[in-house]
UniProtKB/TrEMBL annotation:
This is Glutaredoxin domain-containing protein. Residues 17-78 form the Glutaredoxin domain. It comes from Amorphochlora amoebiformis. PROSITE patterns: GLUTAREDOXIN_1, GLUTAREDOXIN_2. One of its GO terms (cellular component) is cytoplasm.
Amino acid sequence: MPAVNPAKELVKENKAIIFSATYCPYCRKAKDVLKSTGAKFKIVEVDVEKKGNELRKGLYSLTGRTSVPAVFVHGKFIGGCNDGPGVVPLQKKGKLVPLLKEAGAL
């Protein structure tokens, strides 16, 4: 039986989720943008979680990277703060709120 990917499980369980680190300014910005929409989303701070290293490994298997922030909406990776496309560019283009609404996070 394959090992459970804790990041994948959290993504499945939440309509919107951000994997973050408390010391990361890009994470703070991404969380602020998500909060400004009024969305309900889960925050997972990988630097304080007991399974932080496992979560980062899980993120790698989902996204090909271990960096944070990593934002998922409705199970889909939408990037970080400014990349992949990222919450800031999506918000500026008016695409973030519709994504969150479609996911049921708004």
